[in-house]
Specification:
Layout: H1 4-25, E1 28-41, E2 49-60, E3 65-71, H2 80-90, E4 98-105, E5 118-128, E6 131-144, E7 147-156, E8 173-187
Antiparallel strand pairs: 1-2, 1-8, 2-3, 3-4, 4-5, 5-6, 6-7, 7-8
Length: 188
């Protein structure tokens, strides 16, 4: 029978190895200045386009889970009156101050992620204006140095989130809204 000090040393070594693997497995990447842009412009009418440059995104590399948060008042338009109408009449940003996305990449492999762009499917839930919509779309990922870049786009409709468009302007706003995302995440 081996001596108790030897067994204790082996047990402690195994615990350290397990802890280190668990710590590595829990690697998170974060961006606090991500960008989300939307466009709902119709030809021949004023541009309906806004960008939010203070979106927070988090990627948990071991599980492939991703989450993002955008404050509605963080979306800025070229036209301040349009921004005011957006917040007060359409988005009710006092009642619904944020948009969130929580999802999962289906086959994220950090070992093969490099400067070459990889398309990876993400499935999750976009919550906006008190409503939720399932999103399933490919996103472009690449790792340049210590930064993971996530970019992509998808379509939603105002009706998906019970956003009412008044009859007087419904022809000036696209039926489908193009959402573009751009995150540059660094290790936490």
């Amino acid at each position: 029978m081996k001596n108790p000090i030897y067994r204790t040393t082996i047990a402690l070594t195994l615990l350290v190895i397990i802890f280190c693997q668990y710590s590595i497995a829990q690697t998170k990447y974060i961006d606090r200045s991500g960008k989300v842009q939307f466009e709902a412009s119709q030809a021949l009418f004023e541009e309906v386009k806004a960008i939010n440059k203070s979106v927070t995104g988090i990627l948990e590399t071991e599980t492939g889970q991703i989450a993002a948060l955008a404050l509605i008042k963080g979306f800025h338009f070229k036209n301040s009156l349009m921004e005011e109408h957006f917040n007060e009449n359409y988005m009710a940003s006092e009642s619904y101050p944020k948009a969130t996305f929580k999802g999962l990449f289906s086959n994220l492999n950090m070992d093969t992620l490099d400067e070459n762009i990889q398309k990876v499917m993400v499935k999750g839930t976009l919550e906006l204006h008190g409503k939720a919509k399932e999103i399933h779309t490919p996103l472009s990922l690449q790792k340049i140095g210590e930064i993971i870049s996530i970019t992509g786009e998808f379509l939603v409709t105002p009706a998906d989130f019970d956003i009412q468009i008044p009859k007087i302007v419904e022809n000036k706003i696209a039926k489908e809204v193009l959402i573009k995302i751009d995150l540059k995440l660094t290790k936490k």
